[in-house]
Design brief:
The chain has 467 residues and is of the alpha+beta class. The chain folds into two domains: 5-241, Spore Coat Polysaccharide Biosynthesis Protein SpsA, Chain A; 288-466, 6 Propeller (Neuraminidase). It is built from seven helices and 27 strands. It has helices spanning 5-15, 31-38, 69-85, 105-119, 175-181, 194-205, 237-241, and strands at 47-48, 58-65, 89-96, 124-128, 132-134, 148-149, 153-154, 170-174, 211-212, 219-222, 288-293, 299-303, 308-312, 320-324, 338-343, 349-353, 358-362, 366-368, 374-378, 386-389, 395-400, 406-410, 415-420, 425-431, 446-449, 455-459, 464-466. Strands 1-3-2-4-8-6-9 form a seven-stranded mixed sheet.
Length: 467
């Protein structure tokens, strides 16, 4: 029977110098050379384990990445021998962010956590920046019963903890602790914020303290590069941090649907809107399509044939006009057969104005669309509009995610679009061609996105729900 690796490790680290030789090479080797030097015993997928002892933990190292190959090669060249000297059973996962959107470190770590769990039930997760190299072999890459800030002393900051709540760089979580925090926040686009947010999650949600090794052990060298351009700073990070953000679910959805197991369904329905015949009175509806119910049980209705959005407060006998209601046309105060509506907590409305081929956001920052295939955003007091092209011919359903991005079931174009009113970007989130393949859609009529960012589409003519 193999001995426990912790015994071997303790013996070894007592007999060797604590300083670890960190190499920052100007000449970078190919991955084949790196594999020859450090990977003779590495299994597919970046998995290594000691052959002379039994490791106590299975460790997943999650590295977030975009356009940092120079740094990544340097990290591999240092991290593999470092971890093997510690006699650890580890697997390295690289999570790459594609595209030109602002870097989202927290979301990448969450994705890595979810994907790694599909590979193996790891007991320990190390979340690692690509540009940090450990300098002390006593900084053991394992997890305890408390989250650990491993990189509290970086050479960039003269090996000092820059502020008490600093929790960036390299962190270690047991699987249960990471799930207990609900993971990193997904809302921080750009540099900064997600690490301080995680500190709050650990302290106030998980209700644990963060541990750190002494400064002389928790030392890291940062890889600098003249060619790499850092991610732009997130200008809203302090606003989000100081808000009443509830550390919302970013790693896993709440189990179940919130309905207790022994609940019984009412067999007789209750009319909450309309029910007074067809008409355009505020106590009537005409071909209602989409609806939205907020946390106060106020019902918002896309009153299709009346070209308006009305809301019905709970137990009200008539509705209130919210948008449209001035005839069918494309002026800023009109709608033309609206098919769906979504409402945010602050009262912002997103409307699928189907026959105008447009999607409107109504708030203090009002959105109007004067003609097909254009989305315009009007700021208060502005004399010029900001235009975002939209090649959409017919859409019936919309969904707004937690990042305020709008998903549109673009029916006639057999695709789902993702719109962002702030960046004016329009991306194809699913489909794009007619067919029944895994990457195709056929006249989709519905879309919803879960808290992990998975897109579910009602692929109507294919008679399926696809994700």
């Amino acid at each position: 029977m193999l001995p426990n690796c912790s015994t071997v490790l303790t013996t070894n680290t007592n007999n060797i110098s604590s300083n670890y030789s960190v190499f920052i090479r100007r000449m970078l080797y190919s991955y084949d050379v790196l594999e020859t030097q450090y990977g003779s015993d590495i299994h597919p997928g970046g998995h290594w384990f000691p052959s002379r002892c039994q490791a106590e933990q299975r460790i997943a190292i999650i590295i977030c990445y975009r356009n940092r190959e120079q740094h990544f090669k340097m990290l591999l060249g240092n991290l593999h021998p470092f971890l093997q000297q510690q006699q650890l059973d580890y697997t390295i996962f690289l999570v790459n962010q594609h595209g030109q959107e602002s870097f989202n470190r927290g979301e990448l770590f969450n994705i890595g956590f979810i994907e790694a769990q599909k590979y193996y039930p790891f007991t320990c997760f190390i979340f690692h920046d690509v540009d940090l190299l450990p300098e002390d072999i006593r900084n053991i890459y394992t997890c305890t019963d408390q989250p650990r800030h491993m990189s509290s002393a970086m050479d960039k900051f003269d090996y000092k903890l820059i502020y008490p709540k600093f929790f960036g760089g390299v962190t270690a979580f047991s699987t249960d602790d990471f799930l207990g925090t609900n993971g990193y926040s997904n809302v921080y686009w750009g540099w900064g914020g997600e690490d301080d947010d995680m500190y709050s999650r650990v302290v106030y949600k998980l209700k644990k303290s963060i541990i750190r090794y002494p400064i002389e052990i928790a030392r890291y060298k940062m890889i600098l590069s003249n060619k790499h351009i850092s991610a732009p700073v997130n200008p809203h990070r302090f606003e989000i941090l100081h808000s009443q953000y509830d550390f919302g679910l970013d790693v896993r959805p709440k189990p179940g649907d919130g309905i207790c197991a022994d609940a019984t369904w009412a067999r007789i329905g209750t009319t909450v809107a309309g029910g007074n015949g067809v008409g355009d009175g505020l106590n009537q509806l005409d071909q209602p399509f989409g609806l939205f119910v907020d946390e106060n049980q106020t019902v918002y209705v896309a009153d299709f044939a009346n070209h308006r959005i009305v809301k019905w407060i709970r137990d009200a006998t008539s509705g209130q006009l919210v948008a449209g209601g001035n005839g069918a046309d494309d002026h800023s105060n009109q709608l033309y057969y609206p098919s769906d509506v979504v409402v945010e907590q602050d009262g912002t409305l997103y409307i699928s104005d189907s026959y105008n081929f447009r999607h409107k956001m109504i708030k203090e920052h009002y959105v109007s669309v004067p003609e097909r295939a254009e989305v315009s955003k009007w700021l208060p007091g502005a004399t010029n509009e900001q235009v975002m092209n939209l090649d959409s011919s017919c859409s019936l359903d919309i969904f707004v995610d937690r990042n305020r991005e709008i998903y549109v079931a673009d029916n006639a174009n057999h695709r789902v679009l993702r719109l962002n009113f702030e960046t004016k970007k329009i991306l194809i989130a699913a489909g794009g061609s007619h067919g029944n393949g895994a990457d195709q859609l056929a006249f989709p009529n519905g879309v919803i996105v879960d808290q992990l960012g998975t897109v579910y589409v009602a692929d109507t003519d294919n008679r399926r729900i696809i994700r």
